[in-house]
Amino acid sequence: MEQSEPIFKKWAPEWFVRVVLFMALLPSFAPLGLYASYSSYAAGYYGIEPADVQFSILAYYAGLVSFFPFDPRLSSYLLSRQYFILSVSLLVFVTWLCSLVHELPIFLFLRFVQGVIGATVGSPCLTLIFSRLDTSRARAMGYTVFYGALLTAGPVSTAIAGPVLEYFTFPTLYQIYILIQLPGALLLILILNNVRLKKRIPLYQLEWPSFLFFAVTLLSLGYLVSYGQKLYWLEDNSIRLSLVLALVFGALFVVRQLHLKRPYINLGVLRFRNFRLGLLLFLLFYLFRGTTGIATAYFAGVLRMDGWHLAALQVPTLLGIGIGMALTVRFVLLNYSVRGIWLVGFTLLLVYHVWMYFLFGPSQGPGVFVAPLFLQGLGVGTLMVPITVFTLSSLPPAISLSGSYTAVTARYLGFISSIALVNFFQLYWRTENINRLAQEVLPGTSQLTTRLQSYQQNLHSKGMDLGSAQRVATRLLENSLEVQSQLRYSMSYYGMVSVGIVLLLLLIIVLPPVRQKVLSFRQRPL
């Protein structure tokens, strides 16, 4: 940093600076899952299919991930306050446009741009977080805060969206998001001095080709997992084209990085064994977290919870994440065994999945899910810090930024992989369960007749005529079969993930000792 003037105003206490930084960072990730748990609302407002809604979420994510390596060049050109004001203004403007458009191609483009601008907000915040920590602690803590914001963005978005959509129209959700973005942004602008965070680099020889190759690769993979199941995978021309684009542009990106003097992402990070192991853990971690969407679908589809109850169920998850990260970061800074922390974290996730497996039912109350959801958040928070520190601490400082960009990419790949698995097994198991139920309850059998008669008599006793009662009873029976199918699918997927976690725990136990680079923290632990 070139300036002699401090980055923040002298009157701002340290605790206030850190709170403001987190308040400014979190909203830049919130649009990622802004309507993820309420995709039917988004589909109804834009007149699109659920797969389109899913792809719009991945378009934002692809923009965020692909532009992160590009942002340091841009942010160095302007003074910190100017750059942040510009980024927040653009993010607010694009968010407002998203609430106005109804054409799918324009909406998808705006979502990608929204992700790009989200990176220009998040990256400077990350740099400012580093500025508040001494050098030895910055690498361990800065990215932990970054991934912590990513972890909490989903539950926070769900907690906000539920009550809003319960009473207001869908565009109001964007307006509420804009209002949430402003307090942290305005406070950060208020306490920032107009200084430069790094040496100014002229805006020439920008690595636009690498950004383009990277973005097309991520978008093509996102399209593949969003529409593959719906379009029967390689039987559809657009799916084949997206696969070809992902392979070709991915290969072009890799080849270009290997020949650039200053690569967009230094792929030399993959030479480090611990870094590769950390990426694998990241991938598995986000695969296991894919069950949260299934739980939300169960709460809304089977238990018919309203927005307020869904929002309330995010509180124990957020509380668990906060407590888990706060405790684990202390253990990491005190050089506790990383393997031991991994075992504790994945065991907590295992308990959560097994507990939920036995809780799935057609008539549960919201209160019974508070404890398992807290355990899930606690497990997630416990794992994020040691995985992040283990992965990035194995790299030399010169390429640590490339390591962080690669880790974010692994997070994206884990996220889309979980979507692909959920989409595949949802169709497979629900179809199998419906066929099995249909065989168990065949037309003309006493079981089917008894259930239909029960529905008919109940409706008829409430004043409905016999013909209408028969039609409504048939629909009620179909809904009952659908609920049973969803319950069996949810149990099957949670059971499969539980087995996967058990296998990973056994692998962590039997692996030879991990050669962990010992981190030295000269200041007192957090």
Q: Which descriptors apply to this entry?
A:
526 residues, mainly alpha
Description:
This protein has 526 residues and is mainly alpha-helical. The protein contains 19 helices and no strands. The chain has helices spanning 14-29, 39-46, 50-67, 71-77, 80-98, 104-131, 135-167, 170-191, 208-227, 237-259, 273-288, 291-301, 307-312, 314-333, 338-359, 370-393, 400-440, 446-461, 466-510. α9 (208-227) packs parallel to α17. The model is unreliable at 515-526 (pLDDT under 50).
Q: What's the helix-strand series?
A: HHHHHHHHHHHHHHHHHHH
Low-confidence stretches: 515-526
Categorize the overall geometry. Answer: globular
The number of strands is: 0
Structural class: mainly alpha
For the termini, the CA-CA separation is 25 Å
Q: Which band does the percent of strand residues land in?
A: under 5%
* Tally of DSSP helical segments: 19
The largest sheet is: none
Rounded to an integer in angstroms, the radius of gyration calculated over CA atoms is 25 Å
Membrane topology: Multi-pass membrane protein
Keywords: Membrane, Transmembrane, Transmembrane helix, Transport
InterPro entries: MFS (IPR011701), MFS_trans_sf (IPR036259)
Protein name: MFS transporter
Could you outline the blueprint of secondary structure elements for this entry?
Elements: H1 14-29, H2 39-46, H3 50-67, H4 71-77, H5 80-98, H6 104-131, H7 135-167, H8 170-191, H9 208-227, H10 237-259, H11 273-288, H12 291-301, H13 307-312, H14 314-333, H15 338-359, H16 370-393, H17 400-440, H18 446-461, H19 466-510
Helix pairs in contact: 1-6, 1-7, 1-8, 2-3, 3-6, 3-9, 3-17, 5-6, 5-8, 6-7, 7-8, 7-14, 7-16, 9-10, 9-17, 11-16, 11-17, 12-19, 14-16, 15-16, 15-19, 16-17, 17-19, 18-19
